[in-house]
Amino acid sequence: MPKALHQLTLEEALAGLKNRDFTSHDLVSACLDQIKKYDSGIHAFLEVNDQALKEAESPRPGPLSGIPVAVKDNFLTPGLTTTASSNILKGYLPHYESTVTARLKAAGAIVIGKTNMDAWAHGSSTETSDFGATLNPWNTAHLPGGSSGGSAAAVAADMCIFAIGSETAGSIRQPAAWCGVTGFKPTYGRVSRYGVIAMASSTDSPGPLAKTAADAALVLQIIAGLDPYDATSSPRPVPDFFNNLKIKIKNLRIGLPWEYLEVMQPDTRRLVEKAADEFIRMGHQVESISLIHPKYSIGVYTVVQRSEVSSNLARYDGLRFGSPRSGFGEEAKRRIMLGTYTLSSGYYDQYYNQAQKVRTLIVDDFTRAFEKYDLIINPASPGPALKVNATLNEPMFGEMQDILVEPSSIAGLPGFSVPCGFIDGLPVSFGLIGPQFSEALVLSAARNYQQATQWHHAKPRL
Amino acid sequence: MKWQTVLGFEVHVELSTRSKMFCGCPADHFGKPPNTQTCPVCLGLPGALPVPNAKAIEWCIKLGLALGCQINLFSKFDRKNYFYPDLPKGYQISQYDLPFCHSGSLTLSSGKIIRITRVHMEEDTGKLQHAQIDGQKVSLVDFNRSGVPLVEIVTEPDFDNTDDAMEYLKEIQLIVRTLGISSADMEKGSMRLEANISVRKGGQATLPKYKIEVKNVNSFRFVKKAIEFEVVRQIEILSAGKIPVQETRGFNETTGETFTQRLKEVANEYRYFPEPDIPPLVFTKDQISVWQSELPKLPDQKRRELTALGITAEKSGMLVADPQRLSLYEQLIDHRIPSPKAAEAAINVPGNLVDNPTAVLNWISEKTAVSVDPQIIIQTVSRVINDNPKAVSDYQAGKQASLYFLVGMVRRELGNADAGQITEELKHQL
What is the domain range of residue B382? Predict the structure, then answer.
């Protein structure tokens, strides 16, 4: 049976538009219909762009011309409210555009709507959204993960051709894993943060949530690269990610850190080990290695991230943006308090400084590992999607779920999360990370895996 | 009992770069309609990021070099967190433990050395205006000043009298103006002074256990008054066996008194931490040497050059402190007036003549003209006209300066003949 338009991958959609098999209007219509039919039960979107169809009538020419994209609600989009799922910014219409959405629009993409997230990106469930949780399209009794849960669910439910998320530590890879889509976190600095409501400035990395690794490469091509408005964006030239995928990679040395497997649920671990076997079958070497135990990253990440959060949220001071500071949700309040504490006099050396020292050790640990190995196996989540309400009374919920991705986030490394099987009808994912700015290699590895497997083609029954 | 004053200073200077410290908005905010020079960055809108102004960093380091500072080749920005309505991000981007410049010094005319602790870079805040609208008292915020580059120069508590303090503050202003990095105009707030004042017993080696910071004083005279008032107030408290409360005080220009503004916060309540939006800055020794070599002649060097020419230290000081009169002096030297005499004239001519060297030459002649036989003047003028055809044709083409040149040539031969007389004869023969 041929795919419906909304089910197309980005690659397929671009080919279809080029062949005039259908129009952008048809494509956007199909996705809007999907939203209309199913989003009341999933709640991936906070706002749907009521101009999307009109924009699709004469899309701007470009490499993504006429393609509907769903954008996480922490990217500033003039004309569409941007709230980061927080009551503080309820109804906020931004005055300027994020670099990522500006580049997507310049490439011809059509923003179909803004997706739900954990408020301020504080979480790994999308359950802390001030506007209600998003539910997992594979099973609505389960969570989609987070913080880019709305974007992951929108891709899984074919409500868009691809989506944009942002990851501080796990916020792209973990919801991608729980929703069974392909998530890609670029190197810190590869994609501009300008116009993205800051969570933790030293690790925030925008990236794609897509249906395939090839699609992720196409999107990364557009959004990556130096931005004069972001002093932390990298001046390194952007390789041709998509054409790079055609180069056959062979004989990769891949490290499998036992400390990471150790914290995984046994059945999920077995699927990840099967995926590792697949790489061996493809002619690569996979060897067991030892890295600093990921549990140490939780402390480092928690201290650094809370410290930055406490400062980043200071601008919502009650004088502007229309809401007093009492309007912050419980999670934001907890993070502001903890971050204020760790930066306070007498505690700075003990916490923030100490955390930065350990961060350096973790970075060095990866650097040493990448002297011997091209890539390291790094699944995004210890297990499949948890049930709704799992976050209640679990202030460290996110950190426990993101234990596997916090080390690589702290080190600013690129990594992907791709589906590699199912447990009780819920998707499970596998992941690889590479050295900084090795996106081309990491994407090629993901692409190779997807050429050898079918898991990423599976669709939830809505 | 003898008391000794202990003073240290924090001077803020707004740089006159074209754009602000972290965005492209114009830095020149004085007198502009409120909130017309703002953007997402200096308004602290969600998602906006700071990109540092390279020119401002260069100027800050050049000021540090002019003050004999060491330059940190590895430096960074930090966030200073506090809430105030004029601070849109809820933190100020400043520098904490790795300022661009540290450990400098400035030598006063007495030979006393004032240690400069640090020279660092930060951003200015917005400005609050308290007004009445429809009978309601309101506070308005103007963000035009938000993000303007600001350099802070901090001294050790090395002063024990207000004269030294005044000399130091004026010298800083002069150095800043010589570098051309700021108007350092106190009335417009582009130079702001904060004095740290305390008093100890004469002979006591250790610093007092408290200090009073007097802020927002906008003239040298008022700073002096504020310090004098504070010293008396503090001695009174100390004499009663008490210790003044550590606090920040303001200065009332009408009463000449200081008053409590707020109890002093200790530095680490600002929760400083490295600004994650700006990567650390790394400079090379070569870069610093280039900047060092680009420094203009500094006031101290100029003064030494003038005294070497036989001008008194006092007059050298007066000239260097006044760029207009210094320039007049230099023009008089070009007209072959001897240095001490040129200095004398440049200092003493009435203000309305300062930018008119010819008039000053006449003014000098009138005071010092030697009478010369008119026949000799006629002959000399005629010879000079013959010897300088280019100047003559330039003059005839309307170039007034050529006339001054010819006057100079005549005087070179006749010494201090009356310039007016020469000018008249020149005009006559031409």
Answer: 299-429
Residues of chain A with C-beta less than 8 angstroms from the C-beta of B83: 314, 317
* pLDDT tens sequence for chain A (462 residues): 689 999 999 999 999 999 999 999 999 999 999 999 999 999 999 999 999 999 999 999 999 999 999 999 999 999 999 999 999 999 999 999 999 999 999 999 999 999 999 999 999 999 999 999 999 999 999 999 999 999 999 999 999 999 999 999 999 999 999 999 999 999 999 999 999 999 999 999 999 999 999 999 999 999 999 999 999 999 999 999 999 998 888 899 999 999 999 999 999 999 999 999 999 999 999 999 999 999 999 999 999 999 999 999 999 999 889 899 999 999 999 999 999 999 998 888 899 999 999 999 999 999 999 999 999 999 999 999 999 998 887 777 777 788 999 999 999 999 999 999 999 999 999 999 999 999 999 999 999 999 999 999 999 999
Q: Cite the active site residues of A.
A: 72, 147, 171
The pTM of this model reads 0.90
Chain B residues touching residue A235 (CB < 8 angstroms) = none
Q: Is B46 in contact with A95 (Cβ distance < 8 A)?
A: no
Instruction: Measure the CA–CA gap between B360 and B349, rounded to whole angstroms.
Output: 7
Q: Got the DSSP string for A368-391?
A: HHHHH-SEEE--S-SSSPPBTTTT
Three-state secondary-structure class, residue B195: strand
Nearest chain A Cα to B273, which residue?
A: A343
End-of-domain residue from the set B245, B274, B293: B293
Q: Are residues A92 and B271, on separate chains, in Cβ contact within 8 Å? A: no
CA proximity to A61, closest of A112, A22, A23, A107: A107
Q: Nearest to residue B159, comparing CAs of B4, B1, B321, B2?
A: B4
Q: Is the ipTM of this complex over 0.90?
A: yes
> Structural domains in chain A?
5-457 (3.90.1300.10)
Give how far A364 is from chain B: nearest CA, Å. 19
Total structural domains within chain B: 2
Please say which residue of B293, B318, B349 terminates a domain: B293
- Looking at the fold, whether B38 and B96 belong to one and the same domain comes out as yes
Contact assignment for A308 to B276 by CB distance below 8 Å: yes
